[in-house]
Amino acid sequence: MEKSNLFNVDEFGVKNYNYGILALVSFSLFILINAVLGYVTFTAESAAMGSPVKDYADAFWLMLMSSTTIGFGDVYPITLVGRIAVFIMFILGVGILGTVGAIFANKIFGFADTNIKNRELRKQNEQILQLNNKIYQKLTVLETKLAALDKAQK
């Protein structure tokens, strides 16, 4: 196991990721980014007249709705800083949530578990190479015997 415990490398050199830790780190990063950008949006929007963002809860809600692409429209930014924060949250939130969703879908449903296929193929290749080496050794012995018989007949 590697020091960060994010993955371990098996005997075939395949990285096997620890999906629990990856999901925890991704979710924590998601919440942290929501909280920080929510604060930035709250700070920018609370000074603007007519902004629907009245308190931090509204700003945090705006970040959650932006990150999930739902965007109900009940809370929206009117300042440039607020709009930039929402844009950043939209890009990062979609990326993080999409990654976490893909990890869980792959882990639960196993759509593309190529690690298992790669291990099986590497094991088969190893067996084929061992068999080829045995055959090569037997052929070498046979060639030596044939050469000796050929010499004896001459």
Would you kindly provide a written description of the structure presented here, covering whatever features stand out?
It is rod-shaped and about 110 Å long. It has a two-stranded antiparallel sheet with strand order 1-2. The termini are far apart. It has 154 residues and is mainly alpha-helical. The chain has helices spanning 19-46, 56-67, 80-109, 114-153; strands at residues 7-9, 15-17. It has 2 domains: 1-111, Orthogonal Bundle (Helix Hairpins), CATH 1.10.287; 113-154. Helix 1 crosses helix 2 and helix 2 (56-67) packs across helix 3 (80-109).
- Series of H and E elements: EEHHHH
Low-confidence stretches: none
Cα shape:
rod-shaped
Total beta strands:
2
Top CATH class of the largest domain = Mainly Alpha
Helix content: over 70%
Say what the CATH topology of the largest domain is. Answer: Helix Hairpins
Strand order of the largest sheet: 1-2
Query: First CA to last CA: what distance?
Result: 64 Å
Task: Please tell me the total number of domains.
Answer: 2
How much of the sequence is in beta strands?
Answer: under 5%
Radius of gyration, in Å, reads: 30 Å
What's the average pLDDT? 87
Structural class: mainly alpha
What CATH architecture label of the largest domain applies? Orthogonal Bundle
Number of helices: 4
Query: In this structure, how is the largest beta sheet organized?
Result: 2 strands, antiparallel
InterPro entries: K_chnl_dom, VG_K_chnl
Domain Potassium channel: 30-108
Membrane topology: Multi-pass membrane protein
Subcellular location: Membrane
